[in-house]
């Protein structure tokens, strides 16, 4: 069963190995475990629903608890402490676009706020109800998870918006296809959520971001249905798909999604390479990203992330052997781990691999074959489970991400890391910070930064520390020309920083669109746009 | 000097060869040349300007004539007959974004309409002033044509919006780079115009459409400046670039354009292949487009276009030899010409070529080497000049384009061709129609249809015939799920058909944006949106 207060299935547990615990204790001090609230304690807090009965909703308390929070660190602290604050008054469970429209009509009659809900994996506060005089109806799309049509000639699949990663891939694989969209949240997050929040998958280098995969579909709004027909390309005015992408529930509820799919690839391989230091690693990865070699993924860890990953892997003896070998070959203390993949036709993959090795040699790369690459692929969705292991050991962990042009990548990475590393200095606390490039483009790269810190003696301290760190990093991103999100979206947590990049006029344009589609401002208020 | 009443430089003349004239006479009847008006006759019609003097504008009559019309067939008929109808009252010639803002302020003071003007190559009525009680200021960006910055690390070039194709490429090539955007109008059309109308170049398979090349920039609107920062990717809400792309001057004037550029390729080759018939040609090209082989262009002519191209090439003896060879190899009367290109690194090009040949062999392809491919590359911008040769011979020519998913390509192509072919039947006139696929995608393809007909005894008949044909083809596109434009934009000519694909709610959203950025509806009225 899915955890009510954490990530994923209860049967999957990822513990922090002893070597990892020692590594963190040396950097942050001993862990500070905090006690968890029980589900019974939380259920006791759930107030009576302010909405009447309706055949398409449930007012059951546990369902309301399970749809009250996402997966951000503040959500985690709320769930662990039991201090949820606000719960939705009911959860709608439509099975068809017509039922979505019926629930929107009903919500208007009830003067309710509506929060569209996919997999509940938001890390930016997208699905949290705020205290409001209006009752809150959370609209779960979970029952709309079917592959409805597959046009093999045009390679377009039509899905319900609530299909999560495994549901999407299982239904496509049975027909010999893949969507190829694998965000780290893949096990739980949904197609509609990916579209609404402009998600990016680990192999977007081959398959494209969700912007490239989303071919059309339907948005149910309070002003009517917006049908987006599928065209391979069009010059017929502004592309309305691009208004739905990133709309985060503010304009409407996505009721059908058409995506571009690919036949399963003939071959897929992942490789690991070590670069001797960050400057050469960065230059090498930029050269690779700009060389148009058809790789399917690239991920470059900086020196501290490389060191941390090796420490947390939990096989100290094998790691020591590996490090001795790498040092002999020139990749010593400053080394950076680069993982890359090829996916596709065998001869093309062989050429891409040869070209990649040749190019990276110029930057001092030490090639280690496919073992570490395979490890990466096997563990690609496990990181969110590790939060449990870290939490039990007494450490809080959060991640944030941005993107910028190559000329600015290093400066932005430094600024974000510094803002976090020294963010709790006045409290005498250290923060362990590391970064990887997760998505590279010809023009620049995303930056994905992880930070660990001690929660302090109680939940209030933990939340206050997070607020300080999140604000410091968000300001660093805005000041150093990063985008406030490369793949997680805006939600509530990033909304205060959005004007910096959209400008007042751009933000006003988005507000005018929100009023156009949702005149009463009933949909996901406070998300994307603060007002 | 640039022609005032036709395409391109006066020194370039492309005549219709005798074999071509005979070919058309056999299909359409003898040509019907019409007499042209002289520039002096047109200048005599230009009324006094309704705008006062201003240091950044000119009210000179010839300049006003030269900025009154684009390159659609109705524009051509207006210019040739001298029946321009409406002229702009003045042409503004700003040299900086600040001067654009100054002219917008001044236009508001004068209660004038403003028409942004790039290269004047619109084939959809984008830049034509309509009769209006408000004076019309056409804003030419021609003086803002410089490369302002080149960030070689991030591969971003910043240009003034008025740089035309040769100006863009010459300034980039001097630094070892290319934009790689080559629409057929490249000699005259401009970067700002490409962005405003969602242009696509002949090698978009490699370099991307202008949507992929446009990284950011600035739009000057009546509500203020909209700055679009450059990010390699972002999940921070809807992408405002996508509102500027395709805005066709309705939201503002593009004052600066940042584009993603590429180093000049190591090698480029174009090849020609003949497929035995249309069904196999279509299936082969779809397989190629979906195989992810990194080609740089693909263009597939249908049987009639292949036949017409060979007839109009003007070397009957060599063509006969070629056709005999092709027939022996299995590509006889129904044959279709496929041109494709590889651009990039030598080893990759060699692999791509091998894979393309292997794939196409399954569809009965006859490979002819690089001669015809070179001919295509040499003549790639000459087609618009041929209109002069055809006109002198007494034939009118127009083109239109759409795009659709693969499952619908053949049906749409047939519907569009049939609507044109029989469009003048009740007048006893034949129409010669042919089509090629100019831009292919995994999901589908563009369709580019050319049609030739006799203008009739006078200009009024010619224009009436065009209206019948254009309406018939546009209705066929809308009814058969095509987009009303793949690369030319909406302008005035396609605006009546836009609601069919955007829907009433989508169109209303665009209207609300137009009011947001331009409260007095002063910019390019009637373009993109009819009201």
TrEMBL record, chains A, B:
Binding site for FAD: 116-122, 248-254
Gene3D superfamilies according to UniProt: 3.30.300.330, 3.30.465.10, 3.30.70.3450
Cofactor: FAD
Keyword Flavoprotein annotated: yes
A single BP term in Gene Ontology: lipid biosynthetic process
Organism domain of life: Bacteria
Annotated site residue numbers, Important for enzyme activity: 299
Enzyme active site: 448
Annotated keywords: FAD, Flavoprotein
Binding-site residues, substrate: 387
Recorded GO MF terms: alkylglycerone-phosphate synthase activity; FAD binding
FAD-binding PCMH-type domain location: 84-264
Family: Belongs to the FAD-binding oxidoreductase/transferase type 4 family.
This protein's name: FAD-linked oxidase
Originating species: Pseudomonas flexibilis
């Amino acid at each position: 069963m899915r955890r009510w207060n954490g990530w994923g299935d209860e049967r999957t547990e990822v513990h922090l190995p002893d070597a990892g615990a020692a590594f963190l204790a040396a950097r942050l001090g001993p862990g500070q475990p905090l006690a968890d609230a029980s589900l019974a304690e939380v259920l006791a807090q759930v107030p009576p629903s302010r909405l009447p009965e309706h055949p398409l909703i449930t007012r059951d308390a546990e369902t309301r608890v399970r749809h009250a929070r996402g997966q951000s660190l503040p959500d985690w602290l709320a769930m662990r402490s039991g201090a949820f604050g606000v719960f939705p008054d009911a959860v709608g469970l439509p099975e068809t676009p017509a039922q979505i429209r019926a629930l929107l009509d009903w919500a208007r009659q009830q003067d309710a706020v509506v929060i569209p809900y996919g997999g509940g994996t938001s890390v930016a506060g997208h699905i949290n109800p705020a205290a409001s005089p209006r009752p809150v109806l959370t609209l779960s799309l979970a029952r709309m998870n079917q592959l409805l049509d597959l046009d093999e000639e045009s390679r377009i699949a039509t899905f319900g918006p609530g299909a999560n990663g495994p549901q999407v891939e299982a239904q496509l694989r049975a027909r010999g296809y893949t969507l190829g969209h694998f965000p780290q949240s893949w096990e739980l997050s949904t197609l509609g959520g990916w579209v609404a929040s402009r998600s990016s998958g680990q192999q977007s280098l081959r398959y494209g971001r969700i912007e490239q995969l989303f071919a059309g579909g339907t948005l149910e709004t309070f002003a009517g249905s917006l049908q987006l027909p599928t065209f391979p390309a069009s010059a017929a005015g502004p592309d309305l798909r691009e208004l739905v992408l990133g709309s985060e529930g503010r304009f409407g509820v996505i009721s059908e999604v058409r995506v571009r799919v690919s036949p399963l690839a003939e071959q897929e391989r992942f490789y690991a390479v070590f670069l001797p230091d960050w400057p050469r690693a960065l230059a090498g990865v930029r050269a690779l990203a700009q060389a148009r070699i058809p790789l399917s993924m690239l991920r470059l860890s900086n020196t501290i992330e490389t060191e941390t990953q090796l420490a947390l892997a939990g096989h100290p003896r094998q790691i020591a052997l590996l490090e001795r070998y790498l040092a002999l070959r020139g990749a010593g203390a400053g080394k950076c781990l680069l993982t890359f993949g090829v996916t596709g036709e065998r001869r093309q993959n062989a050429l891409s691999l040869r070209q990649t090795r040749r190019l990276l040699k110029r930057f001092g790369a030490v090639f280690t074959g496919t073992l570490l690459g395979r490890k990466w692929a096997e563990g690609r969705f496990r990181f969110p489970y590790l939060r449990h292991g870290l939490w039990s050991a007494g450490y809080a962990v959060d991640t944030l991400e941005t993107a910028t042009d190559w000329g600015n990548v290093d400066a932005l990475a430094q600024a974000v890391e510094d803002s976090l590393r020294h963010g709790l200095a006045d409290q005498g606390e250290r923060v362990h910070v590391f970064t990887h490039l997760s998505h590279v483009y010809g023009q620049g790269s995303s930056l994905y930064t992880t930070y660990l810190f001690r929660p302090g003696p109680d939940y209030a301290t933990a939340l206050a520390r997070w607020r300080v760190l999140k604000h410091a990093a968000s300001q660093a991103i805005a000041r150093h020309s990063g985008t406030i999100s490369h793949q997680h979206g805006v939600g509530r947590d990033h909304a205060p920083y959005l004007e910096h990049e959209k400008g007042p006029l751009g933000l006003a344009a988005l507000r005018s669109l929100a009023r156009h589609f949702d005149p009463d401002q009933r949909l996901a208020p406070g998300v994307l746009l603060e007002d």
